Amino acid sequence: MTIEFQNFTLRNCAEAEGVVVVIDVLRAFTTAAVAFERGAKEIVLVATVDEAFEIRHHHPDILLLGEVDGRPIPGFDLPNSPSTLAGMDLREKRLVQRTTAGAQGAVLAARASPLLVAGLSVAAATAAYLQILNPHRVSFVATGVRPGGGGEEDSVCAEYIASLIRGCPLAKSEVCQRVRGSGAAKKFIMSEGADFPAADVESALQIDRSNFVMQVERRNAQLVLSAT
């Protein structure tokens, strides 16, 4: 069966139904993938900082990860930075992630079933899983796209996953070029600030590095992300 692909953004992703893949290359779901590579057990996705602190109030051993407008959140344990997490031991740790784009998309996509999240590092694994599911339609949510534009890094990730399913994959060199040319990537590449390390772009461009899928389970009114 030929799979139909639809594209959504944060503005309208609440309308997406069926199989939905929420994409945030820079940086939420690249960071989440690294956390799982470093041994994290699961990640609870939340929309607000207050929700994150409330969860930790009841579970003091949980680690808070995230950003607001790209900046680390005071009181959180970890920044939303894949290059920062790359050297950490997160074995069996439970995390809560709040981000401005990716986590919001996951929360808003309430009609999704199943709900997957992705960056380029899990693109091939995600495409393979979608082929197994073989749904009539797959909806991509490019969370970096705003009314004024942007989000090229997320759009090309969606295109790459779709191209793998169609059997005519985009060249990785083209994918990398388009990501590096995106407004989001330039903010990191040209920044000298610690909040936007250029190494995060390199982490995001490790295409197909991880062999797992990141899927969200709705559990006790929480969105719990795990790697399978």
Describe this structure in words.
- The chain has a single domain, classed as ComB-like (putative 2-phosphosulfolactate phosphatase, Alpha-Beta Complex), CATH 3.90.1560.10.
- With 228 residues, the protein is of the alpha/beta class.
- The longest helix is centred in the C-terminal third of the chain and has 15 residues, at 152-166.
- The protein contains nine helices and eleven strands.
- Strands 1, 2, 3, 4, 5, 6, 7, 8, 9, 10 and 11 form an eleven-stranded mixed sheet that branches.
- The radius of gyration is 16 Å and the shape is globular.
- It starts with a strand and ends with a strand.
- A hairpin with a 2-residue loop joins strand 10 and strand 11.
